[in-house]
Amino acid sequence: xxxxxxxxxxxxxxTLVIAIVLALxxxxxxxxxxxxxxxxxxxxxxxxxxxxxNKLIYGPKIPFTHITLPAIREPKTGDIVVFKYPEDPKxxxxxxxxxxxxxxxxxxxxxxxxxxxxxxxxxxxTNTYYPNGTFGEKEVQVPPGNYYVLGDNSPVSRDSRYWGYxxxxxxxxxxxxxFWPPHRIGILK
Length: 189
Description:
Layout: H1 3-29, E1 31-35, E2 50-54, E3 80-84, E4 92-99, E5 104-108, E6 111-114, E7 117-118, E8 139-141, E9 146-150, H2 160-163, E10 166-167, E11 171-180, E12 186-187
Antiparallel strand pairs: 1-2, 2-11, 3-4, 3-11, 4-9, 5-6, 5-8, 6-7, 9-10, 11-12
Protein backbone atom coordinates (compact mmCIF):
# COMPACT_ATOMS: atom_id res chain seq x y z
CA UNK A 1 0.00 0.00 0.00
CA UNK A 2 1.41 3.38 -0.96
CA UNK A 3 1.97 6.21 1.45
CA UNK A 4 -0.86 8.18 -0.19
CA UNK A 5 -3.33 5.27 0.22
CA UNK A 6 -2.34 4.84 3.90
CA UNK A 7 -2.97 8.54 4.46
CA UNK A 8 -6.41 8.32 2.82
CA UNK A 9 -7.36 5.26 4.90
CA UNK A 10 -6.16 6.93 8.08
CA UNK A 11 -8.15 10.09 7.28
CA UNK A 12 -11.25 8.00 6.59
CA UNK A 13 -10.88 6.07 9.90
CA UNK A 14 -10.32 9.30 11.88
CA THR A 15 -13.44 10.86 10.33
CA LEU A 16 -15.48 7.75 11.15
CA VAL A 17 -14.25 7.66 14.78
CA ILE A 18 -15.03 11.37 15.25
CA ALA A 19 -18.51 10.88 13.77
CA ILE A 20 -19.22 7.95 16.11
CA VAL A 21 -17.98 9.82 19.20
CA LEU A 22 -20.04 12.88 18.25
CA ALA A 23 -23.17 10.76 17.67
CA LEU A 24 -22.75 9.03 21.04
CA UNK A 25 -22.22 12.37 22.78
CA UNK A 26 -25.41 13.83 21.22
CA UNK A 27 -27.40 10.67 22.05
CA UNK A 28 -26.17 10.62 25.65
CA UNK A 29 -26.63 14.27 26.54
CA UNK A 30 -29.03 15.91 24.07
CA UNK A 31 -31.46 13.87 21.96
CA UNK A 32 -32.29 10.18 21.66
CA UNK A 33 -34.73 8.36 19.41
CA UNK A 34 -37.24 5.78 20.63
CA UNK A 35 -39.78 3.53 18.92
CA UNK A 36 -43.29 3.21 20.38
CA UNK A 37 -43.94 -0.50 21.10
CA UNK A 38 -47.56 -0.46 22.33
CA UNK A 39 -50.89 1.32 22.12
CA UNK A 40 -50.80 2.73 25.66
CA UNK A 41 -50.41 6.30 24.36
CA UNK A 42 -52.96 6.16 21.53
CA UNK A 43 -54.19 8.69 20.04
CA UNK A 44 -51.09 10.78 20.75
CA UNK A 45 -48.60 8.06 19.78
CA UNK A 46 -49.30 4.83 17.95
CA UNK A 47 -47.38 1.58 17.62
CA UNK A 48 -44.36 1.99 15.37
CA UNK A 49 -44.03 5.77 15.73
CA UNK A 50 -40.42 6.85 16.06
CA UNK A 51 -39.91 9.84 18.31
CA UNK A 52 -37.16 12.14 19.51
CA UNK A 53 -36.67 12.71 23.23
CA ASN A 54 -35.01 15.82 24.66
CA LYS A 55 -32.65 14.60 27.39
CA LEU A 56 -31.09 18.00 28.04
CA ILE A 57 -34.29 19.62 29.33
CA TYR A 58 -34.47 17.60 32.59
CA GLY A 59 -30.71 17.29 33.04
CA PRO A 60 -28.92 14.41 31.32
CA LYS A 61 -27.27 11.71 33.39
CA ILE A 62 -23.58 10.95 33.01
CA PRO A 63 -23.28 7.26 32.06
CA PHE A 64 -21.95 4.81 34.67
CA THR A 65 -22.36 7.39 37.46
CA HIS A 66 -25.17 8.75 39.60
CA ILE A 67 -24.38 12.29 38.44
CA THR A 68 -27.06 14.36 36.72
CA LEU A 69 -26.15 17.57 34.92
CA PRO A 70 -28.18 20.72 35.66
CA ALA A 71 -31.68 20.80 34.18
CA ILE A 72 -33.18 23.53 32.04
CA ARG A 73 -36.45 22.96 33.88
CA GLU A 74 -38.21 20.39 36.02
CA PRO A 75 -40.76 17.99 34.51
CA LYS A 76 -44.27 19.45 34.63
CA THR A 77 -47.78 18.11 34.30
CA GLY A 78 -48.79 17.43 30.74
CA ASP A 79 -45.26 16.54 29.58
CA ILE A 80 -44.90 13.27 27.69
CA VAL A 81 -41.94 11.64 29.42
CA VAL A 82 -39.72 8.65 28.71
CA PHE A 83 -38.47 6.89 31.83
CA LYS A 84 -36.96 3.69 33.09
CA TYR A 85 -39.80 1.39 34.13
CA PRO A 86 -39.75 1.20 37.96
CA GLU A 87 -40.38 -2.57 38.00
CA ASP A 88 -37.68 -3.32 35.38
CA PRO A 89 -35.18 -0.46 34.88
CA LYS A 90 -33.81 -2.13 31.73
CA UNK A 91 -37.06 -1.23 29.95
CA UNK A 92 -38.01 2.28 28.84
CA UNK A 93 -41.63 3.43 29.10
CA UNK A 94 -43.44 6.50 27.80
CA UNK A 95 -46.44 8.11 29.51
CA UNK A 96 -47.97 11.51 30.22
CA UNK A 97 -46.94 13.17 33.47
CA UNK A 98 -50.11 13.83 35.47
CA UNK A 99 -48.82 14.94 38.89
CA UNK A 100 -45.51 15.97 40.42
CA UNK A 101 -44.19 15.50 43.94
CA UNK A 102 -46.44 16.65 46.77
CA UNK A 103 -49.51 16.89 44.52
CA UNK A 104 -52.61 14.82 45.23
CA UNK A 105 -54.18 12.56 42.61
CA UNK A 106 -57.75 11.37 42.76
CA UNK A 107 -59.68 9.28 40.25
CA UNK A 108 -63.42 9.66 40.65
CA UNK A 109 -66.25 8.97 38.21
CA UNK A 110 -63.66 8.16 35.54
CA UNK A 111 -62.06 11.62 35.81
CA UNK A 112 -58.60 12.54 37.09
CA UNK A 113 -58.25 15.29 39.69
CA UNK A 114 -54.91 16.82 40.68
CA UNK A 115 -54.96 18.92 43.85
CA UNK A 116 -58.77 18.67 43.77
CA UNK A 117 -58.93 20.28 40.29
CA UNK A 118 -60.38 18.30 37.38
CA UNK A 119 -57.72 17.80 34.70
CA UNK A 120 -58.08 17.75 30.93
CA UNK A 121 -57.34 14.02 30.89
CA UNK A 122 -59.99 12.16 28.92
CA UNK A 123 -62.28 9.86 30.85
CA UNK A 124 -60.32 6.86 32.02
CA UNK A 125 -61.08 3.28 32.90
CA THR A 126 -61.20 2.85 36.68
CA ASN A 127 -63.12 -0.38 36.97
CA THR A 128 -60.27 -2.40 38.42
CA TYR A 129 -57.77 -0.08 40.06
CA TYR A 130 -57.22 3.24 41.81
CA PRO A 131 -54.45 5.84 41.72
CA ASN A 132 -51.67 3.75 43.24
CA GLY A 133 -52.56 0.18 42.39
CA THR A 134 -54.44 -0.47 45.62
CA PHE A 135 -58.11 -1.13 45.98
CA GLY A 136 -60.19 1.27 48.02
CA GLU A 137 -57.78 4.20 48.31
CA LYS A 138 -59.04 6.75 45.78
CA GLU A 139 -56.73 9.68 46.52
CA VAL A 140 -52.97 9.60 46.91
CA GLN A 141 -50.23 12.12 47.62
CA VAL A 142 -47.24 11.86 45.26
CA PRO A 143 -44.15 11.45 47.49
CA PRO A 144 -41.17 13.83 47.19
CA GLY A 145 -38.83 12.95 44.33
CA ASN A 146 -41.53 11.05 42.41
CA TYR A 147 -44.02 11.51 39.58
CA TYR A 148 -47.44 10.10 38.71
CA VAL A 149 -47.91 9.08 35.06
CA LEU A 150 -50.80 7.78 32.97
CA GLY A 151 -51.04 6.44 29.43
CA ASP A 152 -53.34 8.41 27.12
CA ASN A 153 -55.13 5.14 26.25
CA SER A 154 -56.09 4.12 29.79
CA PRO A 155 -57.87 0.81 29.15
CA VAL A 156 -54.65 -0.77 27.84
CA SER A 157 -52.05 1.26 29.76
CA ARG A 158 -49.98 -0.16 32.59
CA ASP A 159 -49.09 3.00 34.46
CA SER A 160 -48.94 4.58 37.93
CA ARG A 161 -52.38 3.17 38.70
CA TYR A 162 -50.85 -0.31 38.62
CA TRP A 163 -47.27 0.00 39.83
CA GLY A 164 -47.09 3.34 41.62
CA TYR A 165 -44.78 6.29 41.13
CA UNK A 166 -41.83 7.05 38.84
CA UNK A 167 -38.74 8.10 40.81
CA UNK A 168 -37.08 11.29 39.60
CA UNK A 169 -33.86 9.36 38.85
CA UNK A 170 -35.76 7.18 36.35
CA UNK A 171 -36.77 10.10 34.10
CA UNK A 172 -34.84 10.07 30.80
CA UNK A 173 -36.36 13.01 28.95
CA UNK A 174 -39.31 14.74 27.32
CA UNK A 175 -40.74 13.39 24.06
CA UNK A 176 -41.12 16.28 21.63
CA UNK A 177 -41.20 15.12 18.00
CA UNK A 178 -42.48 12.25 15.84
CA PHE A 179 -40.07 11.72 12.93
CA TRP A 180 -41.42 8.46 11.48
CA PRO A 181 -43.60 7.46 9.65
CA PRO A 182 -43.62 10.45 7.28
CA HIS A 183 -47.39 11.00 7.40
CA ARG A 184 -47.21 11.41 11.22
CA ILE A 185 -44.26 13.82 11.40
CA GLY A 186 -44.95 16.56 13.91
CA ILE A 187 -44.38 18.16 17.28
CA LEU A 188 -45.92 16.38 20.30
CA LYS A 189 -48.32 18.18 22.63
